[in-house]
Amino acid sequence: MHIERASEDDWPEIAEIFLAARKTMSYLPNLHSDAETRLFIRRVVKRSAVWAAERGGEIVGFAALEPGPPAAWLHHLYVDPGSHNAGAGSLLLAKAKEEMPQGFSLWTFQANLGARRFYERHGCRQVRRTDGDNEENLPDILYEYRP
Length: 147
What we know:
single chain; alpha+beta; Aminopeptidase; four-stranded antiparallel sheet; 4 helices; 7 strands; globular
């Protein structure tokens, strides 16, 4: 498995990973159609520095980074559900740490226990919780990684 910068040809695969991953999150409300989500990936996520995890020529995960200034953010890190626990997430998070060596912040839903364990295992710490100050109106957690 390796990490490389996403190319123009990668956006359909990235959108499908995003959709597949979020469909496993049963707590998420269904706010947007698949077509609207694909458009969001092409128009919004694409503005970030997006890195793709590839295995055997297939994209299995991606991370969208905003190195800053003023603040550095990990906006999205998603792995295809069929590729969980195979190292793609760890490689993508390592790339985020490499690209943003001063550290970064990220949000995750409080209900996303797998993501919370993952980020905490990799040195991220909780700094704030909300009752749902997001589009989904779900409680979330602000994490920071500071080396």
